[in-house]
Every structure is written in C-alpha cells, then in structure tokens.
Design goal:
The complex is a heterodimer of chains A (206) and B (126). Chain A contains nine helices and no strands. Chain A is mostly helical. Chain A has one domain: DhaL domain (Serine Threonine Protein Phosphatase 5, Tetratricopeptide repeat, Alpha Horseshoe), CATH 1.25.40. Chain B is of the alpha/beta class. Chain B has a single domain, classed as Rossmann fold (3-Layer(aba) Sandwich). Chain B is built from five helices and four strands. Chain B has a four-stranded parallel β-sheet with strand order 2-1-3-4, sandwiched between helices. In chain B, helix 1 runs parallel beside helix 4, helix 2 packs across helix 3 and helix 4 packs antiparallel against helix 5. Chain B is globular. Chain B starts with a strand and ends with a helix. The relative contact order of chain B is 0.22. The chains are: A mainly alpha (206), B alpha/beta (126). At the A-B interface, helix 4 and helix 5 of A face helix 3 of B.
Chain lengths: 206, 126
C-alpha cells in the first residue's frame, strides 16, 4: 500500500468512527466514562483536516502525523493509546514507499508493544489489546500458511471480532472500567470495538 | 523553586487543587491543566504543555496527575519536551500538591520532593 491509498483508507476510518461515535460512546457509557466515540471522532476529525498536506510524504510520515494528531486532540485514554500505536507504525515503516503485508505485521507488532507499555496493560484486561493481539496472531498464521493478503486480513478481522466477544466475558482491570470491576462483565470493551472497526475498514480496502 | 502542574480530567478539580495549595505555600509556581479546550472532561496535551511553560524554571517541574488519560497524556508531554527537567509524581493530587508545594517553598529540590510524594502515595488516611 502506497501513500495515496493509505490516505484514502484513513479517511474511510475517520468516516466510520464519525458514523459510529454514538454507538461507541453508548458502549463506554455503560462501563467507562462515556466519551470514547466523541473523543475518537474529534481526533479523527482533526486527522482528516491534515490528510491533504501529506500526499507527497511517505506512508511512515502519514502514520506519524495521524498518531501525533490523535495524541493532541482526542482528550481521553484512546488518544495516547491509538496515538502511540500509529506513531509506532510510522517508526517501524520508515523508508518504505509501498507497504507489504509482512511489513505491516512487523509494524503492527511494534504498535502493540507500544500500546502495552503506554497503558501498562496486556491481553485479558478488557482493553483494545484483547482484539489487537489475537488479530495480529491470526494474520501472522494465515500469512504463513497461505501467503495471501486478503486472507490474512479476513483472519485478523475474525479474530478481532472474537476478541470483542471475549471482552464481554471478563472484568476490566485496566482503564476507567476497572473502577466498576465485576459490573463490567457482560459488556463489550469500546476500545476493542473501535479497533475492530478500523481493521474491518482496512480489510475492505485491500 | 520547583514548579507544579496539576493535570486532571476536570478543570474545576485542577483549579481547586491549585487554590488549596495557596493556603500554605503562596509563592510556589503552580498551574492547572484540567479538562479540554471546549470545557468538557478530558486531558489536553496542549494545556499540559502550556501549563509547564508557565511555571518552568531550571529547578524543574513536577506533574501531579489524576488517572487514565491524565497519566498517559502527561507521560507523552514529558517525552516530547526533551531537555526540560520534568517528573511525574506517583501520588493523589490534592495531598501531593499540598505536600509538594510546601517542600518547594522551603527550597527542596525535585529529588527530595519526589521522595516525599512517594510517601504521600503510600500513606493511609485512617
């Protein structure tokens, strides 16, 4: 994937987040502080304004700009978390004009590590990581087996969706939902949900 | 004198903590970075940056943070401001701000104040 396509995909992600912001906020109302959708939509709204200025840049610069914009404009925990993720994608993809699936998987792994460190969190704590980590693992396995980008994204999306379902079964130990503890069981995690939406958009564009 | 920035999801809470410290340490540089620009709850990267600039001196600045995005956003601001002497204290913001500003008013440095604030973080109230 080259810069032009990447910019189009990020624009579609922003549109999806804007369209789903009430749903994401509704999820967050139940177990968090009710701002996930509004915050992410504000951040991606600012991202969209900058996309046009990035057309001549390499993909790494686009990711970096998205990350920095999210960090400075989201206003909730998803800002530093997604911001760190996008900035790590940028750092890992530096110098690549056309991103291949193996490039992406390597960068995705770096992004996950960055998010783990930033949030001092890991799998099983009812966070976005419960969708991200299984998605990455499923994409790696599919790529090794079939060497097909479309199939890898399909596997990743299915695993992320399962991850979202899994977050319904566990209590939060990180983030605002952890203040509710066991009361968070039965509800899906907003961060895992928004990540899955993003991956679905990317998969649909491959 | 070591300066302080109070980072909270709530503008009122951050300003209230700043006011509270004035009772016992009037002249210590301290700034509030609470809420978002539009008045809603949240933490603003820019507000934290601006607040640091307002109270910064070579003695350094200690940030006190409430939770979640306040912690993470403050960390990212600190990482972005290379060359600045900045620390984040691991303690409740009201108690920490009162203790820290008194420490600063009597001329203690960042290291000593942080050690005190660590104790504040471990203290039980009852």
């Amino acid at each position: 994937m080259k810069t032009e396509k990447l910019i189009a995909v990020i624009g579609k992600i922003a549109a999806k987040i804007e369209q789903q912001k009430d749903f994401l906020t509704e999820l967050d109302n139940v177990i968090g502080d009710g701002d996930h959708g509004i915050n992410l939509a504000r951040g991606f709204g600012e991202v969209v304004k900058k996309l046009d200025t990035l057309r001549e840049k390499e993909p790494a610069d686009v990711f970096k700009s998205v990350g920095m914009t999210l960090v400075s404009t989201v206003g909730g925990a998803s800002g530093p978390l997604y911001g760190t993720g996008f900035m790590k994608l940028g750092a890992a993809l530096k110098g690549k004009e056309d991103i291949t699936l193996p490039d992406f998987l390597e960068a995705f792994a770096a992004a996950i590590e960055g998010i783990k460190l930033r949030g001092k969190s890991d799998r099983g704590e009812k966070t976005m990581l419960d969708a991200m980590i299984p998605a990455k693992e499923a994409m790696e396995a599919s790529w090794q087996e079939k060497g097909d980008t479309k199939a890898a994204f399909a596997a990743g999306i299915a695993a992320a969706q399962e991850g979202v379902e899994y977050t319904k079964t566990i209590a939060a130990t990180k983030g605002r939902a952890s203040y509710l503890g066991k009361r968070s069981i039965g509800h899906q995690d907003p961060g895992a949900t928004s990540f899955t939406m993003m991956l679905e958009i990317v998969g649909g564009e491959i | 004198m070591v300066g302080f920035v109070i980072v909270s999801h709530s503008a009122k809470l951050a300003e209230g903590v700043v006011d509270l410290t004035r009772m016992m340490a009037k002249d210590v540089p301290i700034a509030a970075a609470g809420g978002l620009e539009d008045g809603s709850f949240g933490t603003s990267f820019e507000r934290i940056q601006d607040a640091i600039e307002r109270v910064y001196s070579e003695d350094g600045v200690i940030l006190l943070v409430d939770m979640g995005s306040a912690v993470m956003t403050a960390e990212m601001v600190v990482e972005s401001m290379e060359g600045y002497k900045l620390s984040i204290a691991d303690c409740p913001i009201a108690e920490g701000a009162v203790t820290g500003t008194i420490d600063s008013s009597v001329g203690m440095g960042v290291g000593e104040i942080l050690a005190d604030l660590e104790e504040v973080g471990a203290q039980k109230k009852l």
